[in-house]
Amino acid sequence: MAYGVGGVMSHLANFSLSGVLAVMFLAYVASFVGYTGWGYLLARHSASKVTPFIMLVPVIALVVGYVALKERLILWHYVGILTVLFGLGVHLLGGRWFDKKF
Question: Domain named EamA: which ranges (predicted)?
């Protein structure tokens, strides 16, 4: 059972030092780097220019998982990545393209 009281108790009974260190890394180091980078960008650019790039977070997570952890991506991952990139491209470049065409 993966969820529920039994699942939680099973995970608590079998935790390891590497698991605790991984959670601490994500909680402190990765959050610090992410928020520092976000603050750096917001200090130098307007929020309207920086905010659309937050859509890249799941794309970056999938790519890092694929490259660093050798995770297997399925068709829907690729469809999602392309959808996000297409949407971001339309948002960033669509106005210029639309102005030239019409």
Answer: 13-89
